[in-house]
Structure formats: structure tokens, C-alpha cells
Amino acid sequence: TFGSYGTVLGGVGSRGPMSDTLAYSTYVSGEKSSGFRADNAYSRQNYSLALLIQPSSALKVTLSADGARNDDSTYFGTPLINGQLDDRLRRTSFNVQDALVKYDDQWLRAKVEYQVTDRIKLRNETYFLSSDRHWRNTEGYTYVPATNRVTRDSYLEIKHDLSQTGNRFDATFVGTLGGMKNRLVTGFDASHVDFRHTNNSPYPGSSSVDPFNVVP
Question: How far is CA 66 from the centre of its chain?
Fold first, then answer.
């Protein structure tokens, strides 16, 4: 698809059998736009891949990988002048020149399902998740009537580096209890998380710019 302001979105996917015991699924997509106003541009890419292994009707193994990489908009608002929005500033951004908002996420999974009997089913999933995120912006803008300028503050830089490894297991038992149909599910979930949060709090720094001739 195509849209206003240089917006482009595309995706392609395919799935189907590879043999009597193997099947696959793939999907990739991407989008980008210049945006309605300055610093409103973004670029995003996503993918989803899976392989199904089914050696018998009772056993099924699924391997999958999903991920996304986003360079998002760095527009953070327009200050009011005398309590009102000045139409001349509708497309103006007050952010700094090297502003950024970035996300990079990945998720790997291995899932096993085993139908032991008609009444007992076992499932186990092992996974790894990583998420790296980065923000660098000035996000506070205040119009000062005495100077006819805009004061920028909240100069922030934040980084999130996260990885998580885990395992989920559950067993389902189907039967009767007191003459009534009954299903019991029991299991556990164990995971380990490494997370590093880095920032320059309390976000010092300020600058003053002409709202009608912003120098980033």
C-alpha cells in the first residue's frame, strides 16, 4: 500500500507442507513514512518464521522466530502560545537534531506437544527473548511570552537492554469427578531475566529556540 507523506507498507507471507512430517510458515513486512510534520518519520521491519515437525499424530514440535526493528517518530508535541495552538507551528518539531527512538526485539521459541493418551496431554515451551531500546530526545517545550521563544528541557537519554530465558510446562488430564466432566491442568513456569536500565536522570539541560525558526 501507498499513502500520503511518502508512506509505504508491504508484506509477504507463505505457508504450507514440505513433506508428510514437516510444514513451514514465513512472513516479513515493512513500512516507512516521512510523516505529516518534522521528526514524524518512521521505519519498521518485522518477521515471523516457524517450522512444524510432526513425526506422528501424537507428537508435534514447533520451532519459531519472531522479531521487529523500529526507528520511530521523534516528534514530542507542540507548545501552546497564549493558551492556543498556532497553526503556523502545526508541522514544527522542537526536538534536537540527533533525536532517536529505536526498538530491536527478538523472540525464539521451541514448543513440544505430546498427546500421551486420549486423556493426557503434555506441553513444554522453551524460549529466549531479547529487547534493546534506546531513546534520546528533549521532550519538554514551553513558550515564554517575555522573550517570544520556546524553552526546551528534559534532555534525556534512556537505554533498556533486556534478555529473558525461560521454560513453561503443563500437563492436562481429562476425566470425570463426581460424575461430572473434569479437566485438570497443572504446570510450572521458570525464567531468568537480565535487565540493564541506563539513563541520565534527572534529565538536566535546557535551551531556547525561536519557534518560527527552530535550529535543532
Answer: 11
